[in-house]
Specification:
- The protein is an alpha/beta fold.
- The protein folds into 2 domains: about 5-210, Spore Coat Polysaccharide Biosynthesis Protein SpsA, Chain A; about 215-290, no CATH class.
- The protein is built from 11 helices and 9 strands.
- Strands 1, 2, 3, 4, 5, 6, 7, 8 and 9 form a 9-stranded mixed beta sheet that branches.
- The longest helix has 22 residues, at about 265-285.
């Protein structure tokens, strides 16, 4: 089965070159690499030009730029492999055997349509930070109830994933921050997740061009997307459990923002607790619609 490695890019020639190089160095050679570029200049194209002599590599410049996640979807639509592997421009495959290992697990587990691996976290200067391995009990909980992922992304960024094309769901282009969580739950509606404990991907966290960083403390974006996702999953009748999870999202955001202004742990936890209790009371008495004034 051919693997389609899809690399959406934006104004990061150094990262794009590293990502493409990691694909070119793979010992597994039955792949294609689709690079779609939203950049404002030709830096990415120039950086990866040597690889384009290999017919397995295809470069597409988006004019006009599509934005995220439409650029991700563009790369996938241009691909043809039975297995889809997205790789963001600031992430890279951790070993020359990464694709081979993904492929082996996919072939050996035909009942699974969704695969994800552990990952190594790096900062923007490529300093190693930590190894991230998701607990098997969390993977089991997600396979039992896909809504378990609603309030917390236990899988990681899209770069750690691999999908069978038959089960892949395109990213919802209305979303920015929760786009990966929504897609994971959409896929899990029809198949199961197989988790690989080997760190097959290196992931840059808090990179300067990451959309997630721009949305990290944007309460409006996160609340709007949280409610949009809840409505997409449950319609107009959002259950109490989902309200609680939305409360978790909001209290976590407020807590994070408040933490920047005080070093007192007691003050932080007291604030978070009081806020959570008051928000739950409002949720139960008024309903989510009235609180946010959200219309279907």
């Amino acid at each position: 089965m051919k693997i389609s490695v899809c690399i959406p890019c934006y104004n990061n020639p150094v990262g794009a070159l590293r990502a493409v190089t990691s694909v070119a160095e793979q010992l597994f050679d039955d792949f294609e690499c689709i690079i779609t570029d939203d950049s404002t200049d030709n830096g990415v194209e120039q950086a990866i030009a040597p690889f384009l002599k290999d017919e397995r590599f295809k470069y597409i410049r988006n004019t006009p730029a599509l934005g995220t996640p439409a650029n991700w979807n563009k790369a996938i639509r241009e691909s043809s492999g039975a297995l889809i592997k997205i790789l963001h421009h600031d992430d890279w495959l951790s070993t020359p055997e990464s694709l081979a290992i993904f492929h082996t697990f996919a072939v050996s587990n035909p009942d699974y349509g969704f695969f994800a691996s552990a990952r190594n976290h790096y900062d923007a200067r490529t300093n190693a930070l930590e190894l991230m391995v998701t607990d098997g009990r969390l993977i089991g909980a997600m396979n039992k109830d896909r809504f378990f992922s609603f309030a917390e992304n236990f899988i990681g960024v899209p770069s750690v994933t691999l999908f069978r094309r038959d089960f892949f769901q395109y990213y919802d282009e209305r979303l920015k921050f929760l786009v990966d969580v929504e897609q994971y739950m959409a896929v899990l509606a029809n198949t199961k997740l197989f988790y690989i404990k080997d760190p097959l991907v290196n992931v840059t966290i808090h990179g300067p061009t990451q959309v997630t960083r721009q949305c990290e403390y944007n309460i409006d974006v996160q609340l709007r997307e949280g409610l949009m996702l809840a409505e997409k999953l449950w319609g107009k009748n959002i259950p109490i459990s989902a309200m609680m999870k939305l409360t978790y999202i909001l209290s976590h955001l407020i807590f994070s923002c408040f933490s920047q202004f005080t070093t007192s742990l007691r003050s932080r936890y007291l604030f978070a607790a009081v806020f959570a209790v008051q928000f739950i009371r409002l949720s139960l008495s008024c309903g989510m619609k009235k609180i946010f004034g959200c219309k279907k």
